[in-house]
Amino acid sequence: MVNEVPWPPGQDAEALAQRLAVELTRAVVRAEKRSGRTLDRRELARRLSVSTSSLYAYLNGTTLPGTGVFDALLAALGVFGPEAGRLATLRDEADAARRLRPTVPRGPAAIFPTPRQLPLSHPVFVGRDAELARLDALQGTSEDGTTGRAAVAVVEGTAGVGKTALALHWAHQARARFPDGQLYVDLRGFGDEAVMDAGEALHGFLQALGVTPAAVPADTAVASGLLRTLLAGRRVLLVLDNARSTDQVRPLLPTDPGSVAVVTSRNRLDGLVVREGALRIALDVLPRYAARTLLERQMGAERLAQEPREADELVHLCARLPLALSVAAARTATAPAGSVGALVRELRRAHAPLDLFGVQDADVDLRSVFHGSYALLPAPAARLFRLLGCHPGPDIDGTSCAGLVGAPDPPTALLDTLTAAHLVRQHTPGRYALHDLLRLYAAELLDGGPPQERREGTERLLRHYVDTARLADHHLEPWRPAPGGPPKPTAAQPAIGDRATATGWFETELSSLQALVAQAAVTPGLEPYAWRLADACAVHLRRSGHRTQRAAVHALARDAADRAADRAAHATATRRLADALSRLHRTREALGLLHEALRTCRDLGDEEGVREVRLSLVRVHGSCGDPRRALPHARLALAMAERTGDPLALADGRTAVSQQWERLGEHTVALDHARRALDLYTRLGHLDGQAGILIGMGRSEQALGRPAAAIGHYQVSLSLDRALGDRYREAHALAHLGDAHAALGRDEDAGALWEEALALFEDLHHPDAEPVRARLRTRAEDYAAEPASSQLSP
């Protein structure tokens, strides 16, 4: 029978044999008592398919039965449950004892081989101090091993992030703590080679610990028990590298205190954490300083000092991934001076940048390394990973992934699969990212597949963002009429139900939104998404004070409309870009664009477009302190609104006229127009318009010598600005409140308000901070009210 051999001589073997024989004899006696008759040995042997002499040898302890026969024997004797488990353990211990080499002495003075299997660690190792400290704390047992169990750590992370480097670096540092040896195995969980099963790994470990090849059990469970037996009472470090699954690792783990197992894997081995209590150490890409240090140590600090900017860009292009940095360093280490810059230029220009990280050895070729993880994904998760190559932003949430794959709900299970494989990272709850080199790999996979997969995925993604941005924009200005009615949320959209959540969504997604506008602008046939997305972002960009991004987004939208030859969209984008440039004090450019937009709207017969352009001209001329040029445009805009009778257009027209009369010093006339505008805005529920006109009314009241009335207007405007999230106008309302309090001799109140206004302006990096700063440098009584603000409207 399998594993059935006579007992070798030896005190331990004999003792275990006698214990097992006694236990089996007791089981026979109990079986006979239950049946009320003597057990027929011949019948029992027949049922076990063994000879009668073999059965007697099992019962008297001269021969150890194989596992299958032993289990059948216990069942025939009616031994089940915990008792059967205890006897099976005793049988395994006996098996372990008889497999030790006869030359190895037994007893307390036993001397075992001391394996030293650790391979070389990487010669350059940087960072990871926190992770090393956690591994150092892992072996928390006392010298006598009183914790009762071995320690296990799982080092997880994406391909090329340095898991093996960390494990081996720590192992070499800590090997003095493990005087009984260090075992290492590459489990080949990823790559082209066949995955190593636990039995093969056990075979190697047992031989290293003194078991002859012929005595290594064929059964994995028996071999695992033998390994645990041999490690009992010893301090051994096991490094189990490149594990694919928990099941592959579990039979290799020690159990006795004093030993430690460090497992590395690209997959998230939750089973080891949950059942074995393993310490999880998740590696991310290197911090920027550590990535730069890695390059310096591999290439030489002096060399990098000659090209500091190029070195920083190379760190960025390598996504701070240790493997990519090492490959890049190897490419340039022996090349002529200036090679860092040359590599950076190659990477910028390359159609397939991963080609430059390719080497002949597959284990360090980035594309091959990434493929080892991707190839193991189930088809739906692999499709989502490829489609993530469509997304140009820094991260993505679950609802956007639903839009990307065309699903009604967030594909949580697929994202969990990608996260478990460390192909994406959930950096905050519900938001996922993959580093730039993995994004390039995903895009390569997409380009290598059916052409429509990228096109359709990109369009689904753009449609999702446009729909969501319109929903968010509606909550920012619910009073503005929407063609076809207000947007309706769907299950595949984030929960946006009020102004706060809408503002939060825009702020979170702003980088992605700008990148998506840029992507749509250069994708033939998808250009309309660029200006639609820019339009949906316009209110938030204006209110939030993102002046540079505002101009960039509308410039992209204008380019897209130009490529698509859509003159109406081009005129709207041109007007929006002019408004943005005006906020950046690029007045001449803004005026040129507005006159261009005015001509286009006239050519197209777009009266509403003409009116909007005139209001923009009012704002630009007003911003450079020229109300006499602004007033005619304001009057024309008001006249056009009076012809149509549109209440919102009337309110905007009266606001424009009021602002110019106020700047010209005609405050009574200005207040008359302002009150009528405020009445219209109030009836429409237009909070934005109310906030803007109230500041103008406050300035007129203050100029007429009524600072107390001005304070009332400013305070209401300030409350509305804060509710709307318009930080720029909030800063102006605070500054004007300070002026009004100063006019009443309340210097302390005025100073506090100006300090608050200055902090907002500085946070927005806005030049309007300087006049406020000047107020704070000078006595409050030396300041009259500030002239009309240059930019209190779109």
Secondary structure tally: strands: 8
Strand coverage percent: under 5%
Structural class, from helix and strand content? mainly alpha
Helical content band: 55-70%
In order across it, which strands form the biggest sheet?
2-3-4-1-5
Cα-atom radius of gyration: 38 Å
List unreliable stretches of 5+ residues. 1-11, 101-110, 141-146, 787-791
Number of helices: 36
Global geometry: elongated
Calculate the mean pLDDT score and round it: 87
Sheet having the most strands: 5 strands, parallel
Distance between the ends:
90 Å
Describe this structure in words.
- The protein is mostly helical and 794 residues long.
- 61% of the residues lie in helices and 4% in strands.
- It has 36 helices and 8 strands.
- Strands 2-3-4-1-5 form a 5-stranded parallel sheet, with helices on both faces.
- Strand 7 (425-428) and strand 8 (431-433) form a beta hairpin.
- Helix 32 runs parallel beside helix 34 (727-743) and helix 33 runs antiparallel to helix 34.
- The chain is elongated, with a radius of gyration of 38 Å.
- The N and C termini lie far apart (90 Å).
- Residues 1-11, 101-110, 141-146 and 787-791 have low confidence and may be disordered.
SSE inventory with pairings:
Blueprint: H1 11-35, H2 41-48, H3 52-60, H4 67-76, H5 81-99, H6 129-136, E1 151-156, H7 163-174, E2 182-186, H8 198-208, H9 220-231, E3 237-241, H10 246-249, E4 260-265, H11 270-275, E5 279-282, H12 288-299, H13 301-306, H14 308-317, H15 322-332, H16 339-349, H17 366-374, H18 379-387, E6 396-397, H19 398-405, H20 412-420, E7 425-428, E8 431-433, H21 436-447, H22 451-476, H23 499-521, H24 527-544, H25 547-563, H26 567-583, H27 587-604, H28 607-623, H29 627-644, H30 647-663, H31 667-684, H32 687-703, H33 707-724, H34 727-743, H35 747-763, H36 769-777
Parallel strand pairs: 1-4, 1-5, 2-3, 3-4
Antiparallel strand pairs: 6-8, 7-8
